[in-house]
Amino acid sequence: MFKRHRISASIIVLAGAASMLRLTTGAGAAEVKFLDQGWTQADRNAYYSQDQGARIVPLKWIKALKREDGSGFLDDGFGRYGYLANPRSPTPGLPVGFLAAPYDGQSYLSMTCSACHTRQIEIDGAPLRIDGGPALVDFQSLFEDLDTAFDKVATDDAIFADFAKAVLGAGASKSAQEKLRQDFKAWREPFHTIFRLALHPATPQRPLGLQWGPGRADAVSMIFNRVAGLDIGDGANRMIPGNIQSADAPVRYPFVWNAARQHKTQWPGFAENGDDILGLARNVGEVFGVFGVFKPRRVPIIGVSYTDDLSLNFPGLMKLETLIKKLEPPKWPGNLDQALVKEGDEIFDWPQEKGGCGPNCHEVNTKVDPPRACAKPGETWNTPIQAVQTDGAEYAVLTRDADTGVLQGETIPLPPFGKLKNRDAIFNILATSVFQSIARSAVKNPLLLRPIFEECVKNRSGDPEVLGVLKMNFVDVVKKTLEAIYRRPEDTPKAPKYESRVMKGIWATAPYLHNGSVPTLADLLKPPKDRPESFAVGPAYDLENVGLAKTQTKFNFVYKTTAACEGIDASANSRCGHNFGTQLDDRQKKALLEYLKSL
Q1: d(CA 474, CA 472)
Q2: Between the CA of residue 51 and those of 102, 262, 271, 348, 459, what are the distances in Å?
Q3: Residue 299: Cβ within 10 Å count
Q4: pLDDT tens digits for 424-453?
Q5: Which end of the chain, N or C, is less surrounded by CB atoms within 10 Å?
Q6: What are the CA-CA distances from residue 299 to residues 49, 311, 444 (Å)?
Q7: CB within 8 A of 502, min separation 6: which ones?
Q8: Can you say whether the dihedral through the CA atoms of 37, 43, 44, 47 is positive or negative?
Q9: CA 259 to CA 325: how far, in whole Å?
């Protein structure tokens, strides 16, 4: 069924209804206010620092690392890259989305999903936190700078000596220092390889270069590169450098409220979604992209072992999914003109030829076929995948092939369930890696997925037939659900399609379009040629035009867009497409904006 959700106007009194937290110490530090999104402070604390299995670098090493000016790399908690202070962190000094986690007998720096999915905007200079919003962080610059700083440790004996002293202490023996050097070399080789090959300068195909800028990342490429390039080789270092390709199709981080309810996910909609089993698969892929340990190896008799060296934190991933399901969209932080909201609601439903988005555009549609195995009836939302002439760069990523390494001959968990060839579609490699990591872990520890089992039983208690199947063999239900978890797009880059999500909380997610190429909703209602050719990116917010303010001070970054709209612009920075509402008059656009703010 289709249902339009109208949200009545409300005034969010930030000083009263929202909780407050001082994020930074020192004189004059601003207080960050939080909108009520259905979370307790305990929920927020868990989301900000819950381990999901990523293992980036030994924590002692990052604490010992220096910048060019001699200051510690971690001294500002990565604030210069936009990451947000977390005064309640279990590890003081680490920002939102970063934590310390155990691996191989020591503490590692880890990332969790809140690093990329927590937003903070500024309204007239006052910071406002939006949990689950697309982060305004510069992931690329963080890791490029880490690589550069670690390169100096690797190539300069004096810098290594200082590094070793900070890690081991002043009295460390020569043998301890040499062991550190060898451990560092082994860790650095794959880290340096992926960033050297994936994040290189501008090319003739990408004249604007690969600078993602704050708020964007080519996460899909980095997941593909990480799994196929660093994990599945049959050599001692497990790398297949030829599988690593340019990460040159950055997209805006998505918002995650209601993410668990979509029946498709990822901007091109290639991943199945909509219940806890599929949500686990979605999150496993994300962990692989941020350096979760995944080292499949071929062993006698059983073939490939997927779980001997696997850092996935399944309880943590399930806890994070539970938190995401509780998270509500942010409500507009101010007054709304009810008459304009009503007028805008009507305009929104006009047919497209009149400037509206109807019929049923961005609607809540609970008709999902086939229904999800573990979701309550009506809980999953059908997510249309539509072509609206927006940037086509991400589609080139989805058509990649790669060498399969140790996975050659493994069964592909996608119809028609063939075997991985020596060289195969990257989709098949990723699907096999995710499927087998979950399935083999569940077989190895039958109680591992019990929280999901209990949730499934609760959600399907009204359907005796489904309930019987769940109770009889839940592991088989998991395996069956994960078959065909990814859909390789049939479309060519000439006709890219992207998900059309329910737009609750859309006011808080600028810049707009999947690649973040339009700074405000008001600009999105203009023809592409009239949208800004460039704009500054940062947290300062424009409430009138609903999006990024023209003047920003946080980052020294200007996003330069393209508009070759005669065909499909695949520059990765195209502002083309999504021409809904562009022919409306000023009064109608004002009403439409007021309505969008109310969602």
Answers
A1: 6
A2: 10, 24, 23, 41, 26
A3: 11
A4: 999 899 999 999 999 999 999 989 999 999
A5: N
A6: 36, 19, 16
A7: 5, 258, 362, 363, 364, 381
A8: negative
A9: 8
